[in-house]
Every structure is written in C-alpha cells, then in structure tokens.
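Batch job 17 of 40 flagged for manual review because the log was empty.
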Amino acid sequence: QVQLVESGGGLVQAGGSLRLSCAASGRTFTSYTMGWFRQAPGKEREFVTAISWSGGSAYYADSVKGRFTISKDNAKKTVYLQMNSLKPEDTASYYCTLRWGDPSYSDHHYNYWGQGTQVTVSS
C-alpha cells in the first residue's frame, strides 16, 4: 500500500547539520503518523521523532530534543528531519517509518519502513 523513500544522509563533523527527507507513495490516508527510528551497530533500534499528519503534533526522544526538528509537507507527502548540533553518538542508520493512527514510541506499532539512510558524525 505504501512505500517510503529516504534521502539526505551523509558524513558531517561534530556540530554540523544534516536534513533528511522521506517521501511516501501509494494510497495513504489522512490519519497517520510518520517519523524516524535509528539503529547503530551493536545497539537496539531507538525512537527518534514522530509527527501526526493531520494534527501536526511532534514528539522527540530526550537525546535529540532541542537539536532535531521534524516537519512535513502535506502536498508532497514528505516528512523532513532537520538535525543540528550533531554529535558522534548520533551516528546510525536512520529509518523512516509510517503507521496508521497516532504517534507511538514503539517500533512494533509502525506498519511501513524506508530503506534507511546512513548518518555519520565525526569528532
């Protein structure tokens, strides 16, 4: 039903910025949530941020609050992740995701996943 395509990953120095994009294609509805999880080698997948499509309410993990900003373009069905003040600990594969309904902190509740994009932050 839905495909997610991510872009924008790369290599930056600590303190730098990156902007990730995730475009949804297929037959989406109005009541859904999009966001990002990330996973570093040897670590579990963790919640980063999510935003509800209809209401626009955004949620952030404590580790990125104040540094990352999620936003959306309704017409393009695209969600963005602006990452500022990047730290080496932010290095991970970032996965865009979508679920029907309200935002959730659990990856078990999401229905579709992007291919992942690598973010590497050097010290």
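Reviewer: the log was empty due to a logging misconfiguration, but the result itself is present. The chain has no helices and eleven strands. Unflagging and moving on to job 18.
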